[in-house]
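User: Run a structure prediction on this.
Assistant: Running it now.
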Amino acid sequence: MRLRVNIPQVDPAEMDAPEVCPYEDCDGEYFTPHQQHCEKPLRDTEYDQVNAKRRKCLRCERTHRVYPEGVSEAEHSDRLKGVAVLLYLLGISYRGVEDFLTALGCPLDHVTVYRDVQEAGEKARELRVEWLKRGGKAKVVGADPTHARCGGEDVVIGVAVDAQEGMILTIDVLENEQTETLYQWLQPILDLVGAEVLKTDDADAFKAVADRTGMEHQLCRRHVTTNVLDFIAEAAEEMWEAPSDVPEELKISADDVLEDLEQLEWTIIGHPEHGSKVLRTLYFHYSAAPRPGKGERASIWYRMRNHVLHLWDNWRRLTCYRNLKHGEGLEINPTNNAAEQAIGWAVKERYRTMRGYKREESVRNVTGLTAWLIDQPAGYDMSALFAS
């Protein structure tokens, strides 16, 4: 993972005083100097002390401090926070960051590092929501779940992305992968970004969500193709090496099955215009295949029936990309690669060096922070993550 960001800087001579009184119950805009020199001890890579100023609000008559750029009420600077957060996201543990900063001469205990990461994560999630509300749009949304350990248990993490631009829209911890849960998660984000197309894997729950939200639905072509080709290879091997007797209900031969498998391979790879008709014909070759008895493995004939029926039923979802291109002039990638890449970089890359999370909120904060920084252009100023 590469994070091309700029660490916040500390400038003792630059002060950015708030225009409005910082107390929540006051909106005063006029102030008077109260104290010009307030020495503040500081943990930083360069300064061990800076000068702050104190001023008085003319409305509420309370005083507050104004700090130099890169300094806040915290004992350590935004620069040190940025270093700690970046080191953690790049794979060093909280205690490892503590050891590194101690060796650098700027000691921070691992608990403080943890708090800095969590606070930066919360801020990143807020910035993501603000960006979406300001007009973040996505015609094509890709969604995919993944899993992680949290508190010793498996948790589902849902990732939704702008499938055309690759920007991550949201990362959330979900209760499960059932239809209602996925609908409650996706429906608000689809409405917010004005989505027209949903891209997912072949799970039935996502199909129900797409139908319920009125979205065009593109199944990940790579997933479906891989699964079908695996079945074709397995079935062909079985027909060559140990073909079973053809059931009386079917009017085909073993050679016919091999020809049908070849036809199925050509159809799933090529996605021809008449693919639905081809699948319909193939289905009726096996529609009368007997069901397996209790505890019995399904025969090659019955498995062929089910695979072809599944593809026939979902042919429109498999070829949605083609229909959109010809009907609406919208070109989309028929795979769900954008969501899978987001999972890899924003979720799995940092998680693979961990033993798991302890809190679900930590899952949201760490993945949300990583995702936000990944999506920013090179040279992004991390100061925005520490602004109060």
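Residues 98 and 112 are 9 Å apart (CA to CA).
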